[in-house]
Amino acid sequence: MQTQFVASQSVEIAVPEQPVPIQHYLRQPQRLVQALVDPTRIEQVSDEIFRLKMRPLSFLMLSIQPIVDMKVWAESDGTVHLKSTRCEIRGIEYINQRFALKLVGKLYPCQVNGTTYLKGKADLEVNVELPPPFWMTPKAFLEATGNGLLKSVLLTVKQRLMHQLLLDYKRWAIADTAIAPSAKSPVLPANSPTA
Description:
The chain is an alpha+beta fold. It is built from four helices and eight strands.
């Protein structure tokens, strides 16, 4: 039985002012991914592709673990895009062969009355053919359960975004400004007594 599950999540966060604008931070997708997902669950495949090993999920009587390859890239204005490129389901081969996941997201900074906000939206869609034991289960019940599961996944990402990302940005901005002055210190001439 072919079933589709969908969920969307929007976010709007006020960004506390730091010495370095958040646009500079957002142009580093690797930092962003590590702020949003537990770093022990990430493998960087290429400059823009990250393999995310999600926590095992329980769906009715099934336990599955999605492995998703995400393309994450940033524009010069700090807008970050993410898009799933590949997915594998560990746990049940029947579902793995009949499973498609599509995740598209965008996060961007904007100014409102002198305050910087991060705004974003993520859309998650799963198409799956469920195994025969589920064929007798009412489709409305399956869809409500699956949609709820996807919504909880996106909500977890949103919560990490609201806490971890701002913490990491603050640490990065402070470290960046601490490094900057020494990088700009004058070079002493070779005949200087202290050289």
